[in-house]
Specification:
This protein is mainly alpha-helical. The protein has three helices and no strands.
Length: 55
């Protein structure tokens, strides 16, 4: 997956999670999503990064 498309997909993950969990602040969701995304920075296979971040 291209880096820009990957970042866009991860951004959409944060949006979906914010809709799914309206009682959690969007800032907290963004922080957690970013943390999980960074944890997968060295993953060799990039196709599933957004799915892994969401789960």
């Amino acid at each position: 997956m291209e880096p820009e498309k990957e970042k866009e997909a991860v951004g959409k993950v944060a949006e979906r999670l914010a809709e799914k969990f309206p009682d959690v602040s969007p800032e907290h969701i963004d922080d957690v999503v970013q943390s999980e995304y960074e944890a997968l920075a060295e993953a060799p296979v990039r196709d599933y990064i957004p799915v892994l971040v969401e789960h």
